[in-house]
Amino acid sequence: MNAQNTPALDEFLIQCQQRVEQSLRTVLSQSIPSSKLMEAMRYACLDGGKRIRPVLVYASAQAVDAKSEDADAAAVAVELIHSYSLVHDDLPAMDDDDLRRGKASAHRAFDEATAILVGDALQALAFQCLANQNNSLEPAAKLQMTTLLAEAAGAFGMTGGQSLDLEASGTDIDLSALETLHRLKTGALIKASVKMGAICNPQCSEEQLQALERYAENIGLAFQVQDDILDEISDTATLGKPQGSDRAQAKATYVSLLGLEKAKAKASELANNAAKSLEGFSSSANSLRDLTTYIINRIH
Asked: Which of 105, 222, 228, 82 is nearest to 157 (CA)?
């Protein structure tokens, strides 16, 4: 863990990561007709990643005093969507990256066709998990979660943002266009993670939900700014993916548009705005508060 983390955050991160890892292993232990496909799905999902999105689900649920067990399905679903997106992003037709989470990308470890099917299967499995969740939530809450995740993953969110990213590669775009791109590509799924956690308590007020949405909008963008910074200053071994890939593909980033120091200042400003949005919450939101610092100080 990062040496700058609080002991409470370190413990919370470990608990959430272990909890979602176990749930992922359960859903990815099913017997399906193609054993190769299941092997590749497990390869793409298990034993890797920071699990930031599931952590945000649990932290948001904690902030509104919801039960962790009611957040399990949402945490798994959002990580399955994220993992699918990474598999497809790495494909030769997309970002063409050979390394992910410190190991060969799925299309390199298996083959390109299998990687495409892995993404398809993980996306479908995410919604299956939401539909079949066995907890105390009302059907209306489960439906709301499903709608949130579908919107965040589709043309109005992550997929739309990825399309804009591909269109912008090698072109000159301004800061406003870059922010729009990343609010969709990265921010939409992060916002969905936070809102799905809040929905786990049916007593969550509209005021609380709006405050959490402001938190998510700021922390989602801060996450992407920090990613751009790390792509510039870190190394491949630390990142677990090719360093400098954005520059190599002539992609606009916060670093290329603002410069390194101004990009760092932008990340800090966004994190501070996220923290301010939680002023109306009690200590139950401390994990969300701590995550604002963790996200902009992470080293990979």
From this structure: 82
Distance CA 288, CA 278 (A): 8
- DSSP secondary-structure letter at 187? I
Q: Is 54:82 a contact under the CB 8 Å cutoff?
A: no
User: Does some domain include residue 269?
Assistant: yes
What's the CATH number where 90 sits? 1.10.600.10
61 in a domain, yes or no?
A: yes
Domain count, the chain: 1
Q: How far apart are CA 133 and CA 291, in angstroms?
A: 27
What pTM was estimated for this model as a whole?
0.93
- Residues of the domain holding 19: 7-297
Pure H helices in the chain: 7-27, 35-45, 52-63, 68-89, 106-109, 112-131, 139-153, 158-168, 175-182, 188-199, 206-233, 236-239, 245-248, 254-258, 260-276, 286-297
CA distance 99 to 300: 14
- In 3D, which of 272, 221, 279, 288 has the Cα closest to residue 13? 288
Model confidence over 219-250: pLDDT tens digits?
999 999 999 999 888 766 555 555 556 565 66
Q: Which of 133, 127, 48 is nearest to 83 (CA)?
A: 48
At 282, the amino acid letter reads: S
> What pLDDT is stored for residue 240 in this prediction?
57
Is 142 among the domain residues? yes
* HSE, side-chain direction, 13 A CA sphere, residue 42: 16
Asked whether residue 117 is domain-assigned, the answer is: yes
pLDDT tens per residue, range 9-40: 999 999 999 999 999 999 999 999 999 999 99
Query: Is the CA virtual torsion 134, 137, 142, 145 positive or negative?
Result: negative
